[in-house]
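note to self: dont lose this again. the chain is below, predicted strucutre after it. 211 aa total, dont forget to put it in the shared folder this time
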Amino acid sequence: MSGTLYITRHGESEWNAKGVWTGSTDVHLSEKGFKEAALLGELLKDARIDYAYCSQQIRALETLEGILDASGKLTVNFERTGAINERDYGVYTGKNKWQVKEEIGEEAFENLRRGWEAPVRGGETLKDVYERVVPFYKQTVLPRLLKGENVLLVAHGNSIRSLVKYIESVSDENISDVEMIFGQILIYTVNEDGTRATKEIGSIDSAPPPA
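---
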């Protein structure tokens, strides 16, 4: 049996609160986001965490620090990596999502948000994100898990969706149905190739699963 992989999304950012596409822009957590990070830490209070990774974006770092503080795990070593940064939304960065939806129509909007290869001028597709996230996972995170270590990964909606696509063997067509919401922790043990062996979900809105 592998170690346990805990995956969570950063808390609400200042731009999330405004309904603005953030992507690669570096913005801080909102007041609500800091509270969410602390609640996520409460969920992990009884879990053993051997190592942690977060993206290079400040909202992920603030979330990780909030989790470690609230869970009493400030001694856990961690690493920041651009491999799990959020998707670059190119020309849509900084625009209000719902105004974009009105401009391009619901079908195009949903494809842009959730689709596998929806092109974005000056930005990344979800496939592009997958092609940097999954090699990092296989080369860096998986060896730790296979040694029996428990790893916490704090990232973003699309970098997590990319990782879930690999871990759960989600098809290109069905990835649009996968969403990573705020306040959840995905809890996996994995096979030797890094795909799912077991899965549980913890939520700040409900009782946590067993550690």
